[in-house]
């Protein structure tokens, strides 16, 4: 794993990951025990159910991944040296800094929604960018978002084997959500490092919040961070523990106070 990722990983991410792995292994061992017990006592109905779920669920996800990939190649713009080369080069450079094979990157029409996400599909690494995001016309902000999504790949957040092991642990109340939020902090730090501009990283998150390209150049980080003081403590805590992403004011505050840009 890249030393950059190790250095920028959020402190609590590894802690939550260990808990998820422990609970996950515990639950998987229980399921294996139930299956072996049913097999030994010739409880055919239980054994058949295990086989149906054990085969049906993976097949469902494989088919879903294949269909999504087909949709991407058939309807979205695949970036490369001959297709939006400047934008593609930003991905290549970011991946090289993270010692990561360059993912396949798609640009698609989001009908005005600013977003980006990373996925693993049938073993391949992919990054998806929306057209509204790229239209912000601020290269540093776009590099931050690209870096954030590359961070998910480089930090192992999308590793299918690890995620299967940890899957049962997500049934523990709030644990999976807490782990997800720390992953977002990790990737924000990676994105800020790769874009080389902490201010651009902070305004990029604000831009995602307001969705207004016209006001992008006038966004004020300090004014936005000050809004965090207006969040009711109890209501803010309750709403956050149910979310996979920290609220944007906290993400900007984390970048302002803790991000190192070398």
What does this structure look like?
It is a single chain. The chain is an alpha+beta fold. The protein has one domain (3-258). Helix content is 64%, strand content 8%. The chain has twelve helices and four strands. The protein has helices at residues 3-8, 11-40, 44-75, 85-97, 131-134, 139-154, 160-166, 175-195, 198-210, 221-226, 233-241, 248-258, and strands at 77-78, 104-108, 116-121, 124-130. The protein has a four-stranded mixed β-sheet, sandwiched between helices. The longest helix is centred in the first third of the chain and has 32 residues, at 44-75. The radius of gyration is 21 Å and the shape is globular. The chain starts with a helix and ends with a helix. The mean pLDDT is 91.
Could you give a quick summary of the protein structure above?
The protein is of the alpha+beta class and 262 residues long. Helix content is 64%, strand content 8%. It has a 4-stranded mixed β-sheet with strand order 1-2-4-3, sandwiched between helices.
Describe the main β-sheet briefly.
4 strands, mixed
Which assembly state applies to the chains in this document?
A: single chain
Sequence of secondary-structure elements: HHHEHEEEHHHHHHHH
With strands numbered from the N-terminus, the spatial order across the biggest sheet is 1-2-4-3
Shape: globular
> Are there runs of 5+ residues with pLDDT below 50, and where?
none
Structural class: alpha+beta
Strand content: 5-15%
Report, as a whole number of angstroms, the end-to-end distance: 19 Å
Overall pLDDT level: 91
* Spatial extent as radius of gyration: 21 Å
Helix proportion:
55-70%
Number of strands: 4
Q: Return the domain count.
A: 1
How many helices does DSSP assign? 12
